[in-house]
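Look at one record.

>
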Amino acid sequence: MGDSEGFLESCGEDTPALAYELRLFISGASPNSIRAVENLKAICEKHLPGRYKLEIIDIHQQKELAEFDNVIALPLLIKKSPGTERRMIGDLSDTNRVLKGLGLIK
């Protein structure tokens, strides 16, 4: 995560209108944060190739965003769109749980 104030990973300029907008709040380079980033990127690349925008926010560098989004536990994934907002806490190692939270499986 380094010195960046936030990291935005886009699937490209031609992102479809129904692209998944994801915001992952982390706490520096903690082991849980690193696992959450790695797990989420792997899930997105496998199940949402070309259909997602991922913003990774280190709360130590962007505390105001954490306050704005009412972050109470870390790591925290917020699915902003499509559909209703969903929140998932943890290192996102349970792929099925993440896919359900994203609405990709029932």
About this structure: Confidence is low (pLDDT under 50) at residues 1-5. Helices lie at 31-47, 63-68, 95-101. Strands lie at 7-10, 20-26, 52-58, 76-81, 86-89. Residues 7-101 form a domain with the Glutaredoxin fold (CATH 3.40.30.10).
